Amino acid sequence: MKEDLEMGEELMQHLRSRATELLLREEWNESVQAYSHFISLCQHHISHTHQRPDLDHLLKLQKSLCLALSNRAEARSRLRDLANALQDCDGALEIEGTHFKTLLCKGKILLSLNRYSLALDCFKAALLDPQAGLKCEALNGFLERCKQLEHQSRTGVFDLSDWVVNGFRGKFPELAEYIGPVEIRKSEIRGRGLFATKNVDAGTSVLATKAIATERCILPDQNEELADNIQLVMWKNFIDKVVESASKCKRLHQLLSVLSNGEDEDVLEVPDVNLFRAETEEESALSMGKPDMDKILSTLDVNSLVEDAASAKVLGKNSDYYGVGLWILPAFINHSCSPNARRLHVGDHVIVHASRDIKAGEEITFAYFDVLSPWRKRTSMSKIWGFQCNCKRCKFEEQICSKMEMQEIQMGLERGLNMGDAVYRLEEGMRRWMVRGDEKGYLRASFWVAYSEAYESDHKTVRRWGRRIPAAEAVVDSVSKAVGSDERVLKAFMAGLKRRCGGGSGLVEMERAMKLARGVYGKVMKKQAMRTLIELGNQE
């Protein structure tokens, strides 16, 4: 028996050395296998030692087991097998609750899972260990990151100012997961939707999240066939990434299962928004099984977002690419031709913010396509997307576009009618038809091209019609209030300021510009950075 134990200990020593060597060489899979073998033997020896108590030998085995579990956790975390890595950390901490290396490893894993408060607890506990002095700078770095991300996740306050002012150089800013005052409900638009639970001011963030997977490429402008082939390859790579992620993470598998695949949307269960919070534990009883490829394909077809879209702005180097990704909670946001939200893409993160003021109980909506276009064009676009838009704006414009004069204005524009004349005729028509409030903003948004070109002219048109056509500022205000802020509306406003005020502008005018800009980009930067972004937008 003694000889067997000695032989077992020699094997354990060999396995431990081999596993450590593989870990240092970053051969993660092989290291996990070697440590697993060592851990099994170690646990076996501990059980035998309990039968024949030898305290010194038992403590030595437990110490070896603790270190092996900690190292296997490290290797598993590198393989993104985070659930099992956390189990190894917990196993090690059961043996030695203040084990420095394990606390550091667990903290980093929890940080990558966006569980900032729990990660902060681990780093604080590690800081108390005498070994912390050797890695004090790195540990303090993790603590500061945790504090910053925890604050972001609690408040929804993000600051991209330095990155914007520095011309988007360096790494993308690190952003936390954030779920603001929102909930999921049955939607009158389609299936389920995301709703505000309290009033939200324009520019305020309602959620921020990282993509499950993204894929990007540069598409050629001139060769349409080549571009189509590149997109097919890109789509395949994107699907592979999603499948790989879902196969490794039970929680992700669970979240994917609640997304729509385009069928029977009216009878789908409405999930609690807390399910999407990082702190929510995964359901242990959930059986993952093999991913259903047909369901995944249909789910991605319905829920994937293109980064450079009508309601989006891509910041930084990714703006040079065509990108697609899957962001789980934003996938619940439906389309409206009177949208109230936009999204800002920063690296693999997306920040969703109010593009105009949102009332409590109002559904949060994106523009899936260009809503600064006439009703008939939007109707055609909605058919391409596979639905019919029945928003308040579309219902109003469907009725008013049946008027002969509206049809004449539209046909006149198609035949080269002067933009100023078209604006005058539309404004006169709205006066006669008693069009007021948002409805006036709807029609001005539909004929935005005519308005913007009329105001960008050499003022002959404006002088010709005088007060019979509204000032550009009034049109900008009514359009942004009715359909949310848009970069083109902001650009037109800034161009008007430049024409009237030359190189400068007053405080009141700049504050109006800032309000529009916050609707476009969100409240994620200070005024200097916002001015930089406005200037970049004017140059595009």
Architecture blueprint of SSEs:
Elements: H1 2-24, H2 28-51, H3 55-78, H4 82-95, H5 100-112, H6 116-127, H7 136-155, H8 161-165, E1 178-179, E2 182-186, E3 192-196, E4 205-210, E5 213-217, H9 224-248, H10 250-257, H11 293-303, E6 305-306, E7 312-315, E8 322-326, E9 334-335, E10 341-346, E11 349-354, E12 363-366, H12 375-385, H13 392-400, H14 404-414, H15 419-432, H16 437-446, H17 448-456, H18 460-465, H19 472-483, H20 487-501, H21 507-521, H22 527-539
Parallel strand pairs: 7-10, 9-12
Antiparallel strand pairs: 1-4, 2-3, 3-12, 4-11, 5-8, 6-8, 10-11
- By DSSP (H or I, 4+ residues per run), the number of helices equals 22
Count of beta strands: 12
* Terminal CA distance: 80 Å
Oligomer: single chain
Strand content: 5-15%
- The global form is elongated
Helix share, percent? 55-70%
Alpha-beta content class: alpha+beta
Mean pLDDT over the residues? 89
Cα-based radius of gyration, to the nearest Å: 29 Å
Strand order of the largest sheet: 1-4-11-10-7
Low-confidence stretches: none
Largest sheet: 5 strands, mixed
What does this structure look like?
With 540 residues, the protein is an alpha+beta fold. 56% of the residues lie in helices and 10% in strands. The protein is built from 22 helices and 12 strands. The strands form 3 sheets. Strands 1-4-11-10-7 form a 5-stranded mixed sheet. Helix 1 runs antiparallel to helix 2 and helix 21 (507-521) crosses helix 22. It is elongated. The model has no long low-confidence stretch (mean pLDDT 89).
